[in-house]
TrEMBL record:
Keywords: Transferase. It comes from Dyella acidisoli. Belongs to the thiolase-like superfamily. Beta-ketoacyl-ACP synthases family. This is Beta-ketoacyl-[acyl-carrier-protein] synthase II. Pathway: Lipid metabolism; fatty acid biosynthesis. Pfam families: ketoacyl-synt (PF00109), Ketoacyl-synt_C (PF02801). SMART domains: PKS_KS. Residues 1-393 form the Ketosynthase family 3 (KS3) domain.
C-alpha cells in the first residue's frame, strides 16, 4: 500500500510558507537564530523563534487559544483547500489526525501557575487543557469537524517522525483514507531551562559535528502533511524505529539503536543503503549525539553520502523536528528548479578528528539528475528512542 504526502503546511523561524522556508533553507540563511532575553536568567541564548504574525483561534475554540495551537493553525491554513478537498472526498469520519508534540501550551500553563502563586487565583484565560498532549490534535478535529482517529505522540525529539509512521499505519490497516500528520512545538521556559540545566544548550550559535560543538539552540515550528493513498508529489516509502533505552538522556555511544532504525527504514522501503541520495541528520551539535550519529551513518553509508544537519538554521524544534526535517526533504523533492536543491550544512568547517568523516554538503548542493531519488531523515530522542524516515519521488 502506497502512502503519499500530498500537501505540506509549514511554519518555522525560516518563514511562514513553503516558498519562504525553501528560499531561506536552500540559501543557508541562519539569520533566524537570534539571541533573546527573558528565557534563561542572566543569559541571552540564540533561539529559532517564529517572527510571523500568527492567526487567531476561532471564537468557538477560545479554550484552545495558545501559541502552540496558533502555530499549528497557521500551518493548517496553508493547506486548508487540500484538507477541505479530502473531507469532501472521504468524509469527516475517514480522516485521522496524528501529531507529535512535547511542549503543547505549557508556557501559558506556566504563566498561569505563576499568576496563581502570586495572586492566589487562576487567570481568566487559564485552561488546564493547554498543557494536555492531545490538545493540538483536538484543536484540528474540532476546527474541521473530523471524527476519525485523533491523537498525539510524545516521544521527545522523534515525535514528529513517529506521527508520520503512525499515520501511514492508519492508512495501511484501513482505518483512514487520509491523515493529517506532523509535529508542532513552541518555545517555553520549561524546555529551554531544562536543557540548560543538562548543560546541553549552546549560548552561541550551534555547530553540528564541529570540534567546537557545545550543544543545541532551541527553536519552534509546525509542519503538517496531508497523507493519502492518492498519488501525490512525494511518497513516504518507509519508516523505521527502535528503542534501545540506553540512558535517560544520553544516546548509545555505539549508535546501535540508530543503525537499527535506519536499517528498518530501508527494509520497509525495499531499498538498500546505496540507493539513498541524501540524509538529513539529527545533528544536534551536542557532543554525544553527533559522535553517535556520525559513527552510525558512516558504518551504514560510508563517507561519501551527502548529508547535513539543518539545526544550525532552525534550532532544535524538539517534537516538531522529525516532521520539520521530513518537510525539508519534501521541499527538496518538489523544488521547482531542475537541479532540486538540498539543505546545506552551515557550520565552522572545523572537523572533529575523533569522528568518522561525513560528506557535509555546502550551499548549492543538489540531487543528481535522472531517475527516482530517495532521501532519509533521522531523529534520535531521549531514552534511546530512534526514528528514520525515507521520502522519495513517486513511482
Amino acid at each position: 500500500m502506497n502512502s503519499y504526502l500530498n500537501a505540506l503546511g509549514i511554519l518555522c523561524n525560516l518563514g511562514a510558507t513553503k516558498a519562504a522556508v525553501a528560499e531561506a533553507l536552500f540559501a543557508g540563511n541562519d539569520s533566524g537564530i537570534r539571541p533573546e532575553q527573558g528565557w534563561i536568567p542572566n543569559h541571552e541564548p540564540p533561539l529559532g523563534s517564529v517572527q510571523a504574525t500568527l492567526p487567531s483561534i476561532p471564537d468557538t475554540l477560545h479554550h484552545r487559544d495558545n501559541r502552540n495551537n496558533r502555530l499549528l493553525l497557521a500551518a493548517a491554513l496553508e493547506i486548508e483547500s487540500d484538507i477541505r478537498w479530502a473531507i469532501a472526498r472521504y468524509g469527516h469520519a475517514r480522516i485521522g489526525i496524528v501529531l507529535g508534540t512535547s511542549t503543547t501550551g505549557i508556557e501559558e500553563a506556566t504563566q498561569g501557575v505563576g499568576a496563581y502563586r502570586r495572586n492566589g487565583a487562576w487567570p481568566a484565560d487559564y485552561h488546564y487543557s493547554h498543557q494536555e498532549l492531545g490538545a493540538p490534535a483536538e484543536l484540528l478535529a474540532e476546527w474541521l469537524g473530523l471524527s476519525g482517529p485523533c491523537y498525539s505522540i510524545s516521544t521527545a525529539c522523534t515525535s514528529g517522525a513517529r506521527a508520520l509512521m503512525s499515520a501511514q499505519r492508519l492508512l495501511r490497516i484501513g482505518l483512514c483514507d487520509a491523515v493529517l500528520c506532523g509535529g508542532v512545538d513552541t518555545l517555553c521556559r520549561l524546555a529551554i531551562n531544562g536543557f540548560h540545566a543538562l548543560e546541553a544548550v549552546d549560548l552561541q550559535r550551534c555547530d553540528p559535528f564541529s570540534k567546537h560543538r557545545r550543544g543545541i539552540n532551541i527553536g519552534e515550528a509546525a509542519a503538517l502533511f496531508l497523507m493519502t493513498r492518492e498519488p501525490g508529489p512525494v511518497q513516504l516509502l518507509g519508516g523505521g524505529a527502535s528503542s534501545d533505552a540506553y540512558h535517560m538522556s544520553s544516546p548509545d555511544p555505539e549508535g546501535t539503536g540508530a543503525r537499527k532504525a535506519m536499517h528498518n527504514a530501508l527494509f520497509h522501503a525495499g531499498l538498500d543503503a546505496t540507493q539513498i541520495d541524501y540524509i538529513n541528520l539529527h545533528g544536534t551539535a551536542t557532543e554525544h549525539n553527533d559522535s553517535m550519529e556520525s559513527q552510525a551513518v558512516a558504518a551504514m553509508f560510508g563517507s561519501d553520502m551527502p548529508c547535513s544537519s539543518t539545526k544550525s538554521l532552525t534550532g532544535h524544534t524538539l517534537a516538531a523536528a522529525g516532521a520539520l526535517e521530513a518537510a525539508f526533504c519534501w521541499l527538496s523533492l518538489t523544488d521547482a528548479r531542475p537541479e532540486r536543491r538540498l539543505p546545506p550544512h552551515i557550520w565552522d568547517h572545523e572537523t572533529d578528528p575523533s569522528l568518522p568523516a561525513l560528506n557535509l554538503i555546502d550551499i548549492g548542493s543538489h540531487l543528481p539528475a535522472g531517475g527516482r531519488r530517495y532521501l532519509m531523515s533521522n531523529s534520535f530522542a531521549f531514552g534511546g528512542n530512534n526514528a528514520s524516515l525515507i521520502l522519495g519521488d513517486p513511482a
